[in-house]
Amino acid sequence: MALTVPPPDCSLLLPCDPALERHIEEVWTARLAKEPWLFNGTKFRLHSFSLMPSKHPLCPHEDQTRQTQCDSDLCAAQSETKLTNCMNDLQRESKGDVPSIRPLLTLTLGLTCYKDYLGTNWSSQVEELRQRGEVEYGDPLALLAQPLGVGAVLFTHDGHVVLIRRSQRVAEAGGQLDIPGGHPEPEVGWMMDGCGVRDQRPEAVVSELFSSVCAEIRDEVVVTDSDLPVHCSLTSDEVRSLYWKGGAEAHESTDIVFLSRTVSLEQLHRSSPLWSELCPSAKGAVMLYQRVRPDGDQSMLHKGTTAH
């Protein structure tokens, strides 16, 4: 699969809406009063994405693929269905006369920040913001930050999947199980100048999306020899030992959990007792793994780093 990232469009920032800005400031002030360790930072804003065969007409599902971050199984199921539609299109196309079709994932990014994320996507008024976005901008996601996240299903050498128990000190999904992950940093790929972008380097953005996954594994699990697709040469016991030594982001989790790849991961579903303990990103990773099953299809393991 190849990944493309068009040059960022500064119009894809949150709209200049005084009421929204006041709400975000109120939420941020309240969160800092309870959690003074929080800090703001620039993030990539995921405006939209499309998945299609290379040199193929626009995927008909592209306009339907924008999703809000939500911890409900309904939203996760809707995202899975829309991605499945695109994947099915690719599979049908590949059965024709074309010998090999390389899927092309295109991300359209803007800029946002962690403060805006907590004040919109994680706000108690998120449904109201969605309704306002639909009415005022014709887009239910127009008033949401939509920061791009990364995560990894990490396999140990003895065939276990690594999960971490999120600390109660983190801003989202405290106490739930998650995969190693976080947010790519725009400063790595772009030179920032106030609220704008001074130097656009989209090829560096693509590189950051992949390298940030390995950086999160290093900082959260203290494993430094991972690669993509994400495997490491250490056993689960060795990973556990490194984890308890503590890494740069040790404060973000309180425990490490290992699942069997062949039993626990592939059989995990919404009625499983463990499902309710997973945070949204972990649920999405499990559903994507079960859908794609990369270990059984080597054609899905190509890491494209094309930037346009």
From TrEMBL:
Domain of life, per lineage: Eukaryota
Record keywords: Hydrolase, Magnesium, Metal-binding
Q: Which InterPro entries match?
A: NUDIX_hydrolase-like_dom_sf, NUDT22/NUDT9-like
Question: Which cofactor does this sequence's record say it needs?
Answer: Mg(2+)
Q: Which GO terms describe its molecular function?
A: GDP-mannose hydrolase activity; metal ion binding
Name by which UniProt lists this protein: Nudix (nucleoside diphosphate linked moiety X)-type motif 22
Lineage at the top is: Eukaryota, Metazoa, Chordata, Craniata, Vertebrata
